[in-house]
Structures are given as C-alpha cells and as structure tokens.
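Dear colleague,

Thank you for sharing your sequence with our group. We've completed the structure prediction you requested, and as agreed, I am returning the results in plain text so they can be pasted directly into your records. Please verify that the sequence below matches your submission; if there's any discrepancy, let me know and we will rerun it promptly.
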Amino acid sequence: MDDRYSHQARARLALSAAAKELSDYARGLVSADDRGSGPGEVVERAVQLVDDARGVLERAVVYDRERGASWQTIGAALGISRQTAHERFAEVERRWKDALHRADAEAGPGGRPARRLPAGADDPERWGRVLDWWVIRHRESTDLDTGEHPVSGQQGPQSAQAAAAELRRDGYELITRGASLAERFSFYERKAELLDQISAADPDDPAAAGAASAARLQLEEARRRAGRR
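Please find the predicted structure tokens below.
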C-alpha cells in the first residue's frame, strides 16, 4: 500500500467515491420515463438506492473515526447512544482497518486473503482525478468554487514523517490486538519500503540508513520464519 496517503485521506476519498456513485444512481430515478420498467422494478431501484445510502453512511462513520471522533460523538450525530453506535458500526470499522493493514497481503504467508480497500481508497491518485472531474462537471453557479482540484487538492499525499508516525500507530495497534502472520508480514513490507524512501531522500543521514537496513532485516527474518511454517 502506498503510505504517501494517510488513512484519513483514503477514508475521505472512499466517502467521496461512494457519494458520487449514489448521486449518479439517484439521477436515474429522476426521469419519469419508465417505459422499460416492469412492475416492481422501480421499487427495486429505490431499494438499491437506500442500500447505497447506507454505504455512504458507513463510509462517513469510518472517515469521522479516522478524524478522531468518539463513538459518543458518532452516536449523538445519529441520535442514538454510544453503545448502539458502536454495536452498529464497529464491524464496519474493523473491516476497514483489516483492509488497510492487509492491503498487500494476498500473497503473504499465513492467513486468509486480504480484504480489498473500497473504491476511492484503493487508488488515491486515480480517484482524485476522477472525483475532481466529477465535481467540476456538476458544479452549479451557486456552488462554492473550490478550484480545479476540489478533491485531490484537499486529500493529497502526506509527508514521509507523517507516514512514519502513522506506521508506528499501526504497529502499536497490531501488537495490542494480536495481529495475524499475514498482517505482520504486510506491516514489515510497508515499514521497509517507507524507511527505504526516507533513507533515499536523505542519503547523508546514517540514522535513516540504519533504520532502513534494520527494517529490511526484519522483513527477511519474517520471510524465513514463514518458510518454516
């Protein structure tokens, strides 16, 4: 996974992509020309629209959680209790984190195949361009002019230092909840790749070079252990 994009940025792009799909689908119900629709088909389309709207809500909850919102805050926004909000969306958040931590683990040793990141989060650069174009195309005269990059301009790559801090938080979370072998393997790969990038950006920093070398050794050790299982 490309660590240039923060978890928060990916969550926002996933929300934007889901909202785009919902808007596009809803537009199809505006036309009253139903000559090609049989009995019940309009209702079926409406049901699909409601299901898609639930998906947008889930993406919004994940995004606000990435921004630091508590379950108390989420519950208050929904008019429900903290406990009910947690019960309703904790599994959604777990699937999101699982996809983040195992995004590159399909071929990794041990464990089930990785979950896929949702549209928008899976390829931030491409989706940034797609969503920029969509917003500009649908912009009306009364809308706030957010420039030529209304999405990608707000959710761009993070610094290497910020990516390293996020990686440390991910590592702590994996340790505290008991990560699978595939999750640990994916984490070691991300860590080695990021520290290589930091070292290459400052080749005169011996500490960066040492950290990158140690991360590579850790990854190789994980590969050897996986081979013995």
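Summary note from our side: The chain has two domains: 1-29+42-158, 159-229.

Kind regards,
the structure core
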